[in-house]
Write a structure and sequence with these properties.
TIM Barrel, two-stranded parallel ribbon
């Protein structure tokens, strides 16, 4: 089903009163919203899932106000979810990574409305105070003003010029340079690669870095949020990865805490799986590390039986229309997902019989 047809179906469903019905039926379930960055310039054009326009985010907040959805802190929501004492349509706002755009654009609006929020911060680039290498390179390459880009000498597996219009070859070259820089290089070498790429795609590197389009918050900015009493800073690993070995996971959490807890003056108790990749194997490790909850990027609403270390969230972004957002928040999409599961389960049973 195309996005256009899907949105038309949702509009008709809303007009038929199905959104209101879904809201009543799912009112006791917890909604957790997931955001990432906010566009300082034009990042949403390149990464619509990662960076959202401030105006689009303001529309979401207005809807929460209009529908009178109570916005709770993650701490309160988790405790009341466990007790089955949530108010109707309780909602939590979460923000992943710790992008500067959150501090500059989203935080003032949240503060004005008095909404609590949780920011899961990945701390490596906070400590280094450098742009996020992979996002920076991807952004520069996608914004290239050249028809061809020379990738020679940037990574051992890439050589020669690539046509920007040859999407598959261009994407492969970009990914190879990012992989090499992230896995094989130190920060100094990554900086040299980034400057070389900027020159070859025709972008002014220093101006881009100064704009902070691809950077996370500084320690002082994180401390400012933590001191607000409204924003909770929580754990998103140090290097934005969740390895499959217990010792490596513990190291990621420890390094993250060492970087952030001096800024927050409180322990980090809630965890967010990087890239939404998770398994039950992590649960005992997170519990031993003192984590009370962990959020995924799996869509859905949460009820008392939902494992606290696998909480569902709705990943909102510039790629999501307002009607799709409404359908998710009122629980209509949850009902459709549940209906599909019932149909697929019945189909599977008929096949086995």
């Amino acid at each position: 089903m195309s996005n256009r047809v899907k949105r038309m179906v949702l509009v008709i469903s809303k007009l038929l009163g199905l959104f209101s019905l879904a809201k009543r039926l799912t009112r006791r379930r917890l909604r957790i919203l997931c955001y990432h960055g906010f566009a300082l310039v034009d990042e949403n054009r390149v990464f619509p899932k990662l960076f959202m326009r401030p105006a689009s985010f303001a529309d979401r907040l207005r809807l929460l106000q209009q529908w009178r959805f109570p916005v709770l802190s993650l701490d309160e929501a988790v405790a009341r979810l466990r007790e089955d004492s949530l108010p109707d349509c309780a909602t939590v706002l979460t923000f992943d990574d710790g992008w500067y755009g959150f501090y500059q654009l989203a935080w003032p609006e949240i503060r004005r409305l008095g909404f609590p929020a949780t920011v899961y911060v990945t701390s490596y680039y906070v400590a280094k105070r450098e742009p996020v290498f992979g996002v920076l390179l991807d952004y520069m390459c996608r914004m290239s003003i050249r028809d061809r880009v020379d990738f020679s000498g940037l990574a051992p597996t890439v050589a020669g010029e690539v046509e920007v219009t040859d999407i598959m070859a261009y994407r492969k070259a970009i990914d190879a340079v990012i992989k090499y820089g992230e896995e094989e290089c130190d920060e100094l070498s990554r900086g040299r690669i980034a400057r070389a790429v900027a020159e070859r795609v025709g972008i002014e590197y220093e101006a881009l870095v100064l704009s902070r389009r691809c950077t996370l918050m500084t320690p002082d900015e994180i401390k400012d949020l933590a001191n607000s009493g409204v924003v909770a800073i929580e754990s998103h690993t140090h290097r934005h990865r969740c390895p499959e070995q217990e010792a490596a996971v513990r190291a990621e959490i420890t390094d993250n805490r060492d970087a952030l807890e001096p800024l927050t003056a409180r322990p980090l108790r809630h965890f967010c799986y990087p890239d939404g990749e998770w398994s039950r194997a992590y649960w005992p490790w997170l519990t031993q590390a003192g984590m009370v909850s962990a959020t995924t990027c799996d869509p859905g609403l949460n009820h008392p039986a939902t494992p606290l270390l696998a909480l569902h969230r709705f990943l909102d972004g510039e790629n999501v229309s307002q009607i799709e957002f409404e359908a998710e928040m009122c629980g209509y999409q949850e009902m459709l997902r549940h209906g599909r599961q019932i149909l697929l389960g019945g189909f599977s049973r008929r096949k086995r019989s």
